[in-house]
Amino acid sequence: MASKSFSSSSSSGCSPASDRRISVLARHLVAENALSSSPIYASPTSSANSVFAHIARGPEDPILGVTVAYNKDPSPVKLNLGVGAYRTEEGKPLVLNVVRKAEHMLVNDRSRVKEYLPIVGLADFNKLSAKLIFGADSPVIRENRITTVQCLSGTGSLRVGGEFLAKHYHQRTIYIPLPTWGNHPKVFTLAGLSVKTYRYYDPATRGLNFQGLMEDLGSAPSGAIILLHACAHNPTGVDPTPQQWEQIRRLMRSKALMPFFDSAYQGFASGSLDEDAQPVRMFAADGGELLVAQSYAKNMGLYGERVGALSIVCKDADVAGRVESQLKLVIRPMYSNPPIHGASIVAAILKDGNLYNEWTIELKAMADRIISMRKQLFDALRARGTPGDWSHIIKQIGMFTFTGLNSEQVAFMTREYHIYMTSDGRISMAGLSSKSVPHLADAIHAAVTRMK
Ligand code: KET
């Protein structure tokens, strides 16, 4: 409005309109003068008197904070077994060969541009991610009753799924296993869900508390959301057997409990992408609805690229389309649309038969190296006569061993041996190498014999 009257009056000389404009300007100038002659107050953002002065220092993250402490330690023998990140036998981070190849193809393709992706991400990536977790011949894909959206790795997929459920699903309670990945309760609480736990791990047997799990799911209110680790449960390394999964599925479907799978380790449990997807496929095959959060951080080593996907399986294609339209409304004000590079790498690998095969071989090699670390650590403890039954080290699967070491023993190992791990006694086996096994075994031996 203002600009309109400005342009019309500027072309008409000294009209009544321009007189009015001059007097409005004059009033502004007078007002500004009055302001500048008023006393000057101390700036509320001067460092002496910060408006944030009351803020207490927050705690470091229980997992990522371990790396922060590790980085500060000058010891040459220090070992980071905290975060679940794969290392080579030389203790170095690994960029898969197949990822290097795909990146090479991408940067050499001059037709590629850096335009925004759609809110739901790269279409190819989404289709191929659904195929990877549900299987190429899955009925949910054939019947088009699924929506898959690219998100910021596993964490972002869980968060978007959580916010969608908090907004549109009739039950706001999510049950997570006890214990679980430390970020789960925070992600879902901030998404607007109320978080409860179900029994999962039995410290006495260092195995699954299947009875406790079934009792707790059995007494959850109808429709409640149940967070399930698709495979390689973090931190325990303990998964249900296929028979137990079938019982869990039947119980959950009979009570209309909503499965929300967290699939952060597909391929890392057994070394086979298909085998590790079985629990998800079992639930998808019964025609019921479910959510899955996928991460490519571990299985493609794309940690910092933040590439993952959220899929929601619905009863029919029409519902899936409407669900997707609402997911877009969750994502747009959160981060607008996802980054292009990581998803392009994944899509390039998943759509090319040769690259895909190369990936499965490299993935299997990572999984095998972790299994060999389990064997070496177990043997090293046996050789030292370390008190206790350490067979869980070779029985547990995935990236982690849930050692059973208590927080004092962990603190002792960090202090005396410069070994960094989470205080719940979890060790990232992927951070271990043949060279560092003796050092870790010495530390565990000392911790259990001296810090009972
Ligand atoms: N789910 C689980 C079970 C999980 O262990 C992780 C990461 C994630 C999701 C998220 O990963 P993302 O990088 O967002 O795709 N876990 C390791 C790293 C971390 O804590 O961030 C860990 O437990 O060490």
Automatic annotation (TrEMBL):
Catalytic activity: L-aspartate + 2-oxoglutarate = oxaloacetate + L-glutamate
SUPFAM superfamilies: PLP-dependent transferases (SSF53383)
Subunit note: Homodimer.
Gene Ontology BP annotations: amino acid metabolic process; response to oxidative stress
GO molecular function terms listed in the Swiss-Prot or TrEMBL record: catalase activity; heme binding; L-aspartate:2-oxoglutarate aminotransferase activity; pyridoxal phosphate binding
Enzyme nomenclature, EC number: 2.6.1.1
Enzyme class: transferase
Sorted UniProt keywords: Aminotransferase, Pyridoxal phosphate, Transferase
Top-rank taxon: Eukaryota
Cellular component terms per the entry's GO annotation: mitochondrion
Names of required cofactors: pyridoxal 5'-phosphate
Aminotransferase class I/classII large domain boundaries: 78-444
Source species: Linum trigynum
Gene3D superfamilies in UniProt: Aspartate Aminotransferase, domain 1 (3.90.1150.10), Type I PLP-dependent aspartate aminotransferase-like (Major domain) (3.40.640.10)
Any further remark recorded for this protein: In eukaryotes there are cytoplasmic, mitochondrial and chloroplastic isozymes.
UniProt function note: Important for the metabolism of amino acids and Krebs-cycle related organic acids. In plants, it is involved in nitrogen metabolism and in aspects of carbon and energy metabolism.
Protein name: Aspartate aminotransferase
Protein family per UniProt: Belongs to the class-I pyridoxal-phosphate-dependent aminotransferase family.
